[in-house]
Every structure is written in C-alpha cells, then in structure tokens.
Design a protein that fits this description.
The chain is α+β, with helices and mostly antiparallel strands. The chain has 2 domains: about 35 residues, no CATH class; about 45 residues, no CATH class. About 15% of the residues lie in helices and about 20% in strands. It is built from 2 helices and 6 strands. A hairpin with a 6-residue loop joins strand 1 and strand 2. The longest helix is centred in the middle third of the chain and has 8 residues. It binds zinc ion (2 copies). The site of one zinc ion has 8 residues, from loops. This is Prokaryotic metallothionein.
Length: about 80
C-alpha cells in the first residue's frame, strides 16, 4: 500500500518509480506518474511519454517542435527503416 504523490490516493496497487536523477516517487497509476515525472516539450508543453527528441539542452515531443524552436537537424528517432 502506498500513497500516490500526485493525487494522494492510497492504493494497494501503487508502485514506485525511480527517475534518472535518483528521485523515488510512489504513484497509483501511470497517468499520475506521467503528470509528475514526464518531461514537457519545450516548444508546446505536451507531456512526453515516448522517447521524444532531444538535443543537449532541451527535449521536444517531436522533430517538428524541435525545428519550430530553432533546433536544426533534429529528426525523430524512430524511423520506418529507410
Ligand atoms: Zn494518483
Ligand atoms: Zn512539442
């Protein structure tokens, strides 16, 4: 039993997530986890639930947003094999 840090729900199916920076959080759902720890696109503010597009300083939801923010040469990591 844990208490979700996002919404405060006590739930026996709660789970713990350790972020890349070593912070540990308890959540009752993937949605609450995303609301707290998913990064936001620097350009449009969308929560990034997949890999996103990164350069050294910023993370974006897609190559379009990276381009709109002025990052040149960004491309989505997942390609169709071409
Ligand atoms: Zn919650
Ligand atoms: Zn975006």
């Amino acid at each position: 039993m844990g208490t979700c840090v996002t919404c405060g729900n006590e739930y026996d199916g709660s789970f713990e997530v350790t972020t890349a920076s070593g912070e540990r959080h308890v959540f009752d759902s993937i949605e609450c986890a995303a609301a707290t720890i998913a990064p936001e696109c620097v350009n449009c503010g969308t929560r990034i639930l997949g890999h996103g597009v990164q350069n050294e300083q910023h993370i974006f939801c897609c190559a379009h947003c990276a381009g709109a923010y002025g990052v040149t040469g960004a491309s989505d990591r997942v390609t169709s094999g071409s």
